[in-house]
Amino acid sequence: MLDASDRQLEEINQELALGLNLQEMKTIKAFFKTRRRNPTDVELQTIGQTWSEHCYHKTFKGKIKSNGKEIDSLFKTYIAKATDEIKQPWCFSVFEDNAGIVEFDKGYGIAVKVETHNHPSAVEPFGGAATGVGGVIRDILGVWADPIACTDVLGFGPLGYDYKKLPPGIKHPKYVYMGVVAGIGTYGNNMGIPTVNGAIYFDESYVGNVVVYCGCIGLLPLKKFRKTAKPNDIIILAGGKTGRDGIHGVTFASAELTEKSEEISRPAVQIANPIEEEKLKRAIIEIRDRELASSITDLGGGGLSSAVGETARRFDCGATIQLEKVSLKYHGLAPWEIYVSESQERMLLTVPAEKLEEVTKIFEKEDVGATAIGKMTADKVLRIHYQGEAVTEVDIAFLFAPPKSTKIAEYKPPNLTEPSFPEPRNLTGTLFQLLSSPNIASKESVVRTYDHEVKGNTVLKPLQGESGGPNDAAILKPIDDSWKGIVISCGMNPNYGKVDTYWMAASAIDEAVRNNVSVGGRRIALLDNFTWGNPEKPERLGSLVQACKACYDTAVAFETPFISGKDSLYNESPLGPVTPTLLITALGIIPDIRSAISMETKAPNDAIYIAGQTYRELGGSEYYKLKGHLGRTAPEVRFSQAKRTLNAVTKAIDEGLVKACHDLSEGGLGVATAEMAFSGGYGMELDLRKVPNENLNRNDFIMFSESNSRFLIEVSEKNKHDFETLMRGKTCTEIGKVSKTSSLCIHGLNDDIAVDASLSHLLTRWKNMPNW
Fold first, then answer.
1. Which among 117, 119, 629, 747 is annotated as catalytic?
2. Is 452 an annotated catalytic residue?
3. Is 662 a catalytic residue?
4. pTM higher than 0.85, yes or no?
């Protein structure tokens, strides 16, 4: 390799499936020239894994030239900068570990992480999704937290997609959907961890690029959080045995999907074993409680290569590894395969030598395999041996210093037009159609696949009321002797990204935050998960830059710090790029779970208020989609106005003035009122003339606009005066009341009846999505 030409370097990269570019290969060549030797295959594979987009996040850390301005790291400039400026004292650990951690109550902290598992799920839906759940649970274990809940947010192509349109190598959306849902349910259910929050979104770009976000929340005593590894600590590999499954998983996840991905990359999909992970979890929690280990991390992307290297770098150490000591599933693995395998259910611990025997006994008690495979060293060099032969000797500093790339970003707003069509005469029929549309219709068939009540800590569940309506967020009570709860919600609006990725990202944050606030949440922390196309293409990267700018602006305005995140790039297939998709997960607290607010109507004659202003913002809306249009006016977030509304709703809940609250999102006011009504079993009578709006003269625009920062709020007659006093100066108006009838009646702008529908018909449409 030392004398290789550029062409030969590219051939080596291709042959070994390193996933590196020419600049990176030349950097490796130059490094080993100073060592006067060729690299081994173990060294090349280790560098390839460490420098992959999946592990090192080169796009978010690299330099970008955008519209004449150079951005040095999207992550530092926008995501981390927001957190640094907000400076919330309750942020315990952010961006530097497997998961973000915030302070909670009675000395406990809450850890949270959301991972992407898009590429594996596209190739093998069941296994890809199951190992996505297993991996994010290990992320939580990797900060010494006990997993208490999971989340899942999924994106699929239309389930009725024409088979004849599928190119070679692309699986039908319904097959992918069934496999992913089953994989997630199987893993979480077998580990006894409830799945409490999530969403499912359908978009044609997801036919070739399935989106799978797996999240986990954990509880840990903060005084037990130990990250103190030092030279001579023993390195232990614990959990499942190592095989060829998952090899090159991170390089596969850092490339576009092609028609050959199924054939070439199926071995990169790991094999799940939740029962093994449950045993591993019990052992780790006991080791934590007895304070026997000095550090811990999971083996995810890159396997040992990533876990050992990152542990050494974090503690400014080196490491010596004896690969022959790794417990294998079968014979015949080459040393490099052992080191980069991504076999599941494995964790890496460092343990002081004097505590090794105690740790070993705990693993034996739980029937978990655990082997001492090496030790930490003081020389900051990674040394790997296999059967007495040195196969790696690389400086840790070099391993984590890939050459910085400079990418070009160009953002040009799409050339879109606002549609013109007459207002439908029958908005009842339109509301029926929206309720049964894929992105709005009930997901109960999926929710019931998962156990959302195991452990007995779930206070507010995914389905609410006698009809199982959609709650805005989940609430958990994680500590037996405390009434304080945690609130988990999410926001994702990919269709807005087709119009404007800046407002798509801002809207996702607004939705996640208002979902949290609507049930009583506050003190909110955020997680960002990007699914994007190929960042080598300037227009794709330009749209990503816009979304990152919005993340900074919105988080700072709302004072909601980011504490963790993940990006999945290169989501492209023969059918084209994925729609720019940003999932925002919000983690809040509620001081007393007994004051939690759900979304269903509670009693006849209660007043219904709408908080927030309605604008003609239907670009990317479900209503425009129903009409076959996209539009050009995506919902914006008016930061100061939104913050005032959020704070006022929180105060009204704290003062006991709110009986029910529901956010307005997909389908706008029309869908939100229907959901509140049929979930509670009480009708509503509303008047569109009373809805605060900006010069809207059509019933359909007022009913189906998806403007941000809006809530529907139910208030009892006795609390109306106090509520209106509190909301004075904010945009909030009484628009109707809960009725004794079993129907939804909405009066239009001309005192006509815009909607008149029985709750039973509304519910039937919502629960019966075609092609489900």
1. 117
2. no
3. no
4. yes
Q: What is the pLDDT of residues 311-337, one digit of tens each?
A: 999 999 999 999 999 999 999 999 999
Number of H helices, E strands in the chain: 28, 33
- Residue in 54, 385, 452, 747 annotated catalytic: 54
CB 191 within 8 A of CB 114: no
Q: Which domains does the chain have, with CATH numbers?
A: 6-39 (no CATH), 226-402 (3.90.650.10), 598-772 (3.90.650.10)
Structure tokens at 171: 């699986």
Q: Which residues of 640-649 are buried (b: 16+ CB within 10 A; e: fewer)?
A: eebbbbbebb
Backbone dihedral angles phi then psi of residue 381, each to the nearest 5 degrees: -125, 140
Backbone angles phi, psi at 695, to 5 degrees: 55, 40
Q: How far apart are CA 334 and CA 571, in angstroms?
A: 31
* Residue 296 tokens, joined: 């811990």
Q: Among residues 542, 510, 507, 535, which one has the least CA distance to residue 524?
A: 510
Q: Tokens for 84?
A: 């640094």
Rounded Cα–Cα distance for residues 201 and 641 (Å): 28
Q: How far apart are CA 225 and CA 220, in angstroms?
A: 8
pLDDT per residue as tens digits for the range 175-220: 999 999 999 999 999 999 999 999 999 999 999 999 999 999 999 9
Q: For residue 273, what are the CA distances in angstroms to 133, 393, 441?
A: 11, 33, 33
| CA separation for the pair 509, 528 (Å, rounded) | 9
The secondary structure of 382-421 as a DSSP string is EEEEETTEEEEEEEHHHHT-PPPPEEEE------------
Within its chain, how far is the Cα of 206 from the centroid?
A: 16
Burial of residue 767 (number of CB atoms within 10 Å: 0-12, 13-18, 19+): middle
Helix (H, G, I), strand (E, B) or coil at 318: strand
